[in-house]
Amino acid sequence: DADVTQTPRNRITKTGKRIMLECSQTKGHDRMYWYRQDPGLGLRLIYYSFDVKDINKGEISDGYSVSRQAQAKFSLSLESAIPNQTALYFCATSDPSDGSEAFFGQGTRLTVV
Amino acid sequence: QKEVEQNSGPLSVPEGAIASLNCTYSDRGSQSFFWYRQYSGKSPELIMSIYSNGDKEDGRFTAQLNKASQYVSLLIRDSQPSDSATYLCAVNPRDSSYKLIFGSGTRLLVRP
Asked: Is A109 on the interface with B (CB under 8 A)?
C-alpha cells in the first residue's frame, strides 16, 4: 500500500457542486499539504497543516477549505466547484526529522464541467 | 519575481549526453533544496536533496548548490530515454516552517 493515499483518483463534477478530496498517510508525519498542479504552473500550495490544530492557508486558498480529522487524515473541499478548479491535486506529507522532503500521494485528477 | 524559477524547456539532449537543469531561488536564507522527477500524470518523486554548498552525487545524478548565487542545479550523466520527464526544483524558504515552494519545472526530452 502507498504511504500517502488519495481518494478518489479521478472525479468529474458539475459546476456548483461540493466535492471533497481525501488524503490519508501511514508515514506518521505531522505535516500535511494540499497542492494543485496546472500545466506550466508547477505545484501551487493550497493549504498546509502542521498538526491537527494548526491549519494554514497557502498561496491559492480561495474557493477551498480543509479539515484535519486526525494526524493521518487531511481532506480538501471545494465548496462550490467552478471550471477553473479543474486540475491535478496532490496531497503530500513531510517531517523535519525525515529531511523535510515531501512525500506525495498518487494525485486526484478533478474535472469541473 | 517568482520565489523559485526554472526554465520550462523542453531541454532536448541525445541519449548518453549530460543533461543540465538549473534553478534559482529568491530567499537567500533558504536551507533545504530538492529535485523531484515527475512523469506525465504521475506524482513527483524525490531524486536528490542537498543542504550545503557544493556537489552531491548519487549514481548518475549530481546536485550542485551555490547559496551565494542562489542557484541549484541537477546534472544527469549518461542520459537515458527513461529520464524524459519534468524535473521540479523545490526549496524550503527561511520563513517557511518547512513548507516547500516549487518551481514550475523543466521538461527534459532524451532523444534515442
From this structure: yes
